Input
Amino acid sequence: MSTITFRDAVLGDEGRVLWFIRALAEYEKLLHEVEATEGDLAAALFGPTPRCHAMFAELDGVDVGFGLWFYNFSTFVGRAGLYVEDVFVLPEYRGRGVGRAIFSELARRAIAEGCKRMDWWVLNWNAPAIRFYGALGARPMDQWTVQRLTGEALAAVAEGR
Output
């Protein structure tokens, strides 16, 4: 049986991170929404003030999955949380424990950083992922509705309009 190992993304890996993001977006039927460039990811992951972090899951030295996360803050808890932006395992490697291993690694990191929780979103149609998250012990936060400002609406609020 192969061992799943992890390696943090380093400068020069931004192309591989983008490749995984695009693979995830294709799976989610959202490839048309990917605007990120390697330059964007290099700045976000490795700039003077990193905004996020990424790691790869490897099986026999091959990148078979990745995770990308950042830290948020809960005023109610008074502590940081780890927000999982993306986790993706290549389809041909699913069912081998890679996804669970990625979430376990992220949970270990969250605890080591003093985080009190991990959060993420899942598309409502993604029944396999919802079942997987339930098996991990995650519970849906369906009493909350996600809100988002982008484009002209974001600019208008920034300008006080």
